[in-house]
Specification:
By secondary structure, the chain is of the alpha/beta class. It has a single domain, classed as TIM Barrel, CATH 3.20.20. It is 38% helix and 19% strand. The chain contains eleven helices and twelve strands. α10 links the parallel β9 and β10.
């Protein structure tokens, strides 16, 4: 997982971070473009989510990637994870197509190169207020996550780099400032990695029940013997020690691991059998560290199609 963390870090280039930070300090506008046509139905062009069902989500490069994933897996994904660097504007183009399709965008704000102490002290409040106003302008519910996998050590905001108290203070500050500007439409998702040797306590970085709506869990098999029980169940046990909030499997996938189909089967079985788990999100990316796209693993893809069809 640390390799995956490094890949996501590299994906947000230094140039983008510097530009974004400059925009924050200059008070740049956060919403790019006019009010989105989120309320206009486009059912003929959309892969709508199954109403009342658990989420089948995907972390993909674009809405096009989501539709390709849906076609390959025979699913109608209800959630799309969108990775963005903290400090970048919220563009209507990021979320309006998802909302128009009945898909919940999960925006993940990653503070690459940004001090969480500075965030907690209010240095980025102008940016946060504009971000919140942009979310309010959308007129629809959006899920929002900040500084994920902080119980790991591969990010600057993680354990061993940023004290737990600073992380919690930054999370709470962001929540309060954005909520004042955006209202109560936001689903706040606190994201942690499945525990592993060397990871930090999940509970130490828990922001508190009034600051979190869902818990996101990230976990990837490392061997052909790994299952839901070995990869994700330990994280659920750790989370349940601090909260009973709904749990979303926010990232999982298989790359260069034998027995991927068996993991997929256990993933859906475990998610369905575990109280409080509201969905499964597949990391549909290719990276220097591996190819997680299901369509490149026919047995795993076939199993995903079968399991997703019966996931209730």
């Amino acid at each position: 997982m640390s390799a995956l963390g490094r890949y996501k870090t590299l994906a947000a280039s230094l140039a983008i971070t510097l530009i974004a930070t400059a925009a924050v300090l200059a008070g740049a506008h956060v919403l790019a473009g006019s009010r989105p046509a989120a309320a206009r139905p486009r059912a003929q062009a959309c892969a709508r989510a199954r109403q009342g069902m658990p989420y089948i989500g995907v972390a993909a490069v674009s809405l096009k990637g989501l539709h390709q994933f849906g076609a390959a897996t025979g699913t109608r994904p209800g959630l799309l994870v969108i990775y963005r660097s903290f400090g970048t504007p919220l563009s209507a183009a990021d979320v309006a197509p998802d909302l128009a399709c009945g898909i919940l965008p999960l925006l993940q704000l990653n503070p690459y190169g940004v001090s969480l102490t500075a965030i907690a002290a209010g240095r980025y409040d102008a940016y946060l207020r504009r971000y919140g106003a942009a979310l309010r302008h959308l007129g629809a519910r959006v899920a929002l996550s900040f500084a994920p996998e902080a119980n790991g050590r591969w990010y600057s905001w993680g354990c061993g780099h940023t004290p737990a108290a600073v992380y919690v203070a930054a999370w709470r500050h962001i929540h309060d400032v954005i909520t004042r500007a955006a209202g109560r439409r936001i689903i706040w998702v606190w994201d942690v990695n499945s525990p592993f040797p060397g990871s930090c306590s999940v509970g130490d970085r828990w922001p508190g029940a009034s600051y979190v709506d869902w818990v996101g869990l990230d976990g990837y098999p490392q061997t052909g013997e790994d299952t839901f029980a070995t990869v994700l169940a330990p994280a659920i046990v750790a989370v349940r020690a601090v909260t009973n909030k709904p749990v979303l499997i926010a990232e999982t996938g298989v790359s260069r691991v034998p027995g991927a189909a068996a993991f997929v089967q256990s993933l859906f079985a475990g998610a369905e059998d575990t109280p409080g788990v509201i969905g499964v999100t597949w990391f549909e990316y290719t990276s220097p560290h591996g190819d997680y796209r299901l369509e490149n693993d026919p047995p795993a893809l076939a199993e995903f199609r079968r399991e997703a069809r019966n996931y209730h």
